């Protein structure tokens, strides 16, 4: 029996796809951004007709979207019932958190400054007034945040940039020249066996050379 290839198969869906009153051309269309929805298509390599159509909710354009309210204990740090990484350098820890929490989304919850301030009940934190310096409670949160040791192998590179999410949480109105989070020593790097590359802008002068001597390709941003 001859089996036709994917490229020769006829579409099994013959109906219409209508999103927010707009009919979607199934054979070929550009990605569409609506007020409430986004419509995207995926194709096989070298093909034009979509093999998959994705319809998702557009939170940015929908002004009526109500963000789910976080639970009061969202940022309560619980003791880990497993091994955790012990950091000696706070700047290095922040670079690791950037990778695990924001880039790979493996370390949760993903910290959001506005949420944290909304939930914090020990005092009123005013971001507009206090956001030009590191907010002590936020700094303390990240210092105390445990990082599971099992995630160490996920770190293959660290990339520092003044616009990284982690720094925007710590210092909302930072300008990029601050030295609060400079990496001062490279001792922590030994705990990450797959770390092969480091692009840095917050580090002391000795760090680049030390990392290179450890076999980690390091350079300034």
UniProtKB/TrEMBL annotation:
InterPro entries: DUF6892. Pfam families: DUF6892. It comes from the Bacteria. Residues 85-217 form the DUF6892 domain. This is DUF6892 domain-containing protein.
